[in-house]
Design brief:
globular; alpha+beta; 637 residues; 3-stranded antiparallel sheet
Length: 637
């Protein structure tokens, strides 16, 4: 190792030692973030990982290894500390014990970079995972017949579903060019969906082509394919895609589309049946080990009794590991889509759509049947969006653990390749732009919509919706300030059926802004006069509640600021070098820390937050940006 490399390593270790001390001083309870900080400081302590949960124990509190896959894997591909082989053991063992975790690692590597070390590691993850995943032949399992009985008779309503095929190969792997591979089954399915988006670029009759390809896809379903989102959908098997659910949203250069996926939970249907451990780890029936305790105990056993167990051939990966070559430093153009939420008046709610599809479906009698809507995108690098959503999850967790009535709505974004992926669709939400376009001609304000939708201002329904609006406005105001989320026109802000604001499209965050980073929206957050009007005016009691809620939320974020900063610090090098949010300013992390953890007393931070609110209130830059978007894209304000 040369002198320069030695100095760089010492600087790196010194920086992360300082982080470790901050985390210790603040008594951070997140064991996973503490383990990662130790790892980044080159303190390779294998045992610490045995006490960490592999998967989420809650949809709100995310202290699990799956949540931190980007930070963990980015360290492996960018650094080369002593003991890297032991860290790889943790990665491989986790992948062997959970197909869902393994797929998350695979997709992250696939989307992160074309650098040779990421491709090498992706191959190794695939290899070690495939060896331990054995899909049972369903015809040999007696539960297949019991499950089949639950499927109602299909009366040829939709010819692309073949009942005979369903009964014969209920959970066969999803094929690619005639090949079948249990591990790649789910990966190939989403690859096929994104390929359809590529097929319709620059051609006419897009919906016709997508519908035709979806019908072909249905011939290969049901299969060992699941929805890789945490929460309830994480154990859902894809059964069928209703062709009439397809919607294509054409932009200047891309053609994303929306599909609805019929899914169900096999274990829910068969919970009265006994099943062995091998089966519970197999196929699409379960995507993790039985529980985190079992995982932790088995991991401890692995490192105490099998520490000398040979790894796969790592020579190719270790030679390339630690090299930054292959990580593009030029940010990729982003053209993210809000058109999904820009229908003037949706003909039916998500519940009504689900009821209609279920009535016509051959799987409608399955008690765990559900409908999941996703947007399939290609031509966009979704990694930055994915990282932004990770931060939103962290913000929501901090608010929740501090018992604050602030609202944020994270939704799932999964980058499956360098320029493609899927996005969870937020149910029953419309953009503010589409809401305004649906109002009668003599109306143009958000308060008009609230009166039409929720009733008179003194009604319970209006007050309930206003309260939801208040808590979401406070939550997203803090989020937009800390992360410096820009491009906040009314096409990128939604309102759901309960009155919550929901922000989408995070192509411009931190030190990156539209127009070649001209930073026109130089304002803490969007707080228009009509937002305040919904609350009752800037002198109203509800506006004062908004102020107090922002102060309390900011105080909670200050106390745990390093947890947020570390999410971005850990991916700044390596994968982060290709992200626009790190491209324009080398002081991005320092600026983030200054916003979320200013050196202020209790009195001063209250004054600081109120100054942010005052500066944002009906700011001329916000208003003129909205006018610009109206002139250029016909987005109402």
């Amino acid at each position: 190792m040369g002198n320069t490399e030695n100095r760089q390593r010492k600087t790196w270790v010194s920086k992360w030692e300082a982080f470790k001390e901050i985390i210790r001083r603040k008594r951070t309870e997140d064991k996973t973030i503490k383990a990662l900080v130790k790892l980044y400081s080159h303190e390779v302590s294998i045992e610490v990982f045995s006490d960490l949960p592999l998967h989420p124990q809650s949809t709100i509190v995310r202290n699990d290894l799956e949540f931190y896959v980007p930070q963990f894997v980015n360290f492996i591909i960018c650094e080369n500390p002593e003991g890297i082989e032991e860290i790889l053991k943790v990665l491989f063992y986790s992948c062997q014990n959970s197909i869902r975790y393994s797929h998350k690692v695979y997709w992250f590597l696939s989307s992160a970079s074309s650098a040779s070390q990421t491709r090498e590691l992706m191959h190794l993850v695939e290899m070690v995972s495939r060896e331990s995943i054995g899909y049972p032949r369903m015809e040999e399992d007696p539960r297949k017949a019991a499950l089949r009985e639950k499927i109602k008779v299909y009366n040829e309503v939709d010819s692309d579903v073949q009942l005979s095929k369903i009964t014969e190969v209920f959970f066969d792997s999803f094929p690619k060019k005639g090949l079948r591979d249990n591990y790649m089954s789910c990966i190939w399915f989403f690859e096929r969906l994104t390929r359809i988006a590529d097929m319709i670029l620059g051609v006419k009759r897009k919906k016709e082509i997508v519908t035709r390809e979806i019908k072909k896809l249905n011939l290969l379903l049901p299969a060992s394919v699941y929805i890789p989102f945490p929460g309830r959908t994480s154990s859902n098997v894809v059964l069928h895609i209703p062709p009439d659910s397809v919607k294509v949203f054409e932009t200047k250069e891309k053609a994303p589309y929306l599909v609805s996926l019929e899914v169900f939970e096999p274990m829910e249907e068969m919970k009265s049946q006994e099943y062995d451990d091998n089966f519970s780890r197999s196929g699409s029936f379960s995507f993790s080990v039985a529980d985190s305790t079992q995982y932790a105990e088995s991991l401890k056993e692995f490192f105490t009794e099998e520490v000398n167990k040979p790894l796969p051939n790592l020579e190719g990966f270790l030679k390339k590991n630690g090299s930054k070559k292959g990580f593009s430093k030029k940010p990729k153009r982003k053209e993210l889509v809000a058109d999904v939420y820009n229908e003037k008046s949706p003909e039916e709610s998500s519940q009504q759509q689900a009821a209609r599809v279920r009535k016509r479906s051959p799987f409608g009698n399955l008690k765990s049947w559900n409908l999941v809507r996703v947007i399939v995108k290609t031509g966009d690098d979704l990694l930055q969006e994915q990282f932004a959503m990770q931060a939103i999850y962290k913000f929501r967790q901090i608010f929740y653990e501090n018992k604050l009535d602030l609202f944020l709505k994270p939704y799932e974004i999964l980058a499956t390749g360098e320029n493609c992926g899927v996005v969870e669709c937020i149910p029953d939400a419309q953009s503010l732009d589409s809401i305004k376009k649906s109002l009668p001609e003599h109306m143009n304000s958000l308060i008009d919509y609230f009166r039409i939708k929720f009733g008179p201002e003194d009604s319970k329904s209006f007050k309930w919706a206003k309260h939801n609006f208040l808590r979401s406005l406070a939550g997203y105001s803090l989020l937009c300030y800390v992360l410096q989320i820009k491009d906040r026109h009314n096409g990128n802000i939604l309102l759901d059926k309960e009155g919550h604001l929901v922000h989408i499209d995070f192509g411009f965050i931190l030190n990156c802004s539209p127009g070649g980073n001209i930073r026109f929206e130089d304002v803490p957050f969007k707080l228009t006069a009509e937002f305040v009007e919904v609350l009752g005016g800037y002198r109203s009691a509800d506006f004062q509640k908004f102020r107090k809620l922002c102060v309390k939320g900011f105080r909670a974020l200050m106390k745990r600021s390093e947890e947020v900063v570390l999410l971005f610090e850990m991916i700044k090098n390596g994968v982060g070098e290709s992200l626009p949010c790190f491209y324009y300013d080398e002081h991005t992390i320092e600026d983030l820390r200054a916003r979320i953890a200013p050196s202020l007393s209790k009195t001063d931070y209250k004054m600081h937050v109120n100054k942010l609110i005052d500066k944002s209130l009906d700011n001329w830059r916000t208003n003129w940006y909205d006018r610009y978007q109206y002139c250029c894209q016909n987005i109402l304000y």
